[in-house]
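## Example record

The block below lists the input lines for one assembly entry, exactly as stored, with component labels intact.
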Amino acid sequence: NAGVTQTPKFQVLKTGQSMTLQCAQDMNHNSMYWYRQDPGMGLRLIYYSASEGTTDKGEVPNGYNVSRLNKREFSLRLESAAPSQTSVYFCASSLDSSRDTQYFGPGTRLTVL
Amino acid sequence: GDSVTQMEGPVTLSEEAFLTINCTYTATGYPSLFWYVQYPGEGLQLLLKATKADDKGSNKGFEATYRKETTSFHLEKGSVQVSDSAVYFCALGEWANFGNEKLTFGTGTRLTIIP
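Predicted structure tokens for the full assembly:
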């Protein structure tokens, strides 16, 4: 049972490049989330998906897009990376909502030069 | 909006010392409260949670009580171990759009236990 997996683990981009962060869960969860973690700021929600086929903005959605490809997979896309997007990105899932335990992936460390 | 304020770190303690990490919150409704822990190089994992006032969450010797009157959810452990060294996050779960909740996190407290 892998839980929540994320790829890649590390990535370096140049300003203006694009990339997609992949996330998958094998727990049959309905809700999935993307967070970014920055020093001194805790985790901030970028986007979430309450169920397959729905997505909604979180606290810091600007510069990002998401796709809930199916129940298992939730991807995060940076269309034109900026240095301000240098961060550690975590994907998480929960059974139905944040009242349920959220299970986190190991994270992707992204550096934008 | 809702917010979580937790004790600034880093916190350094000797093994077997008593631990308290303070957490207070502001919320308009009746949120769920959580403590998550992050070990080096890993993602976050749930340590404990409480869903209503006066509930006590507990796990691995850690405890926290949901205090509505003081809007607090302080984390305590009677005797810490080296293996407890990690970053601890207090979080608040609120109802958002479409009936789904989202978590608001505190900034995290780094705990180091010295043998």
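Chain A touches chain B at residues 4, 31, 33, 40-45, 48, 50, 54, 56, 58, 90, 92, 97-99, 101-107 (CB under 8 Å). The CA atoms of residues 30 and 51 of chain A lie 5 Å apart.
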